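Posting this for the archive.
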Amino acid sequence: MDTVNRNTSTLQSQNETLARLEVGQRNTREISNISNWESDSDGRVTYVSASLCEMIGYSAEQFMHDSWKGFVVDKDRDRVFKSWKDSVQNASHFSETFLFRKFDGSFIRVSAIALHNKDKYGKVLNSIVRLDNAPES
């Protein structure tokens, strides 16, 4: 019976720690000025930072799921998507510079860098993408 009580206590402690980490992560997201989004392994957006919304003029709801793909200009789209798919498939670094259509119809040159969270087998679970203004080339 002591083993069951210890295991239950350990599980409760682990759940409490996980809950604190999730709250801390949400708080960090909210106070961060980094323009970023998070996506699942298929590239569907699951989170958008307020600073990214300000930068591009879209609301988080407008940017969610697959919507961001339509904001990459046509001439860059195939290259960016191929690079993204390759980086997820190989669980490797993603870094691209491209034109992004803002809500007001204007364009902004951005540099995107992604970090992938992987499972113990190296398969990508989700990604965090940082977007910065890029100098004109």
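The longest strand covers residues 107-118. The helical segments are 2-31, 50-56, 60-63, 74-89.
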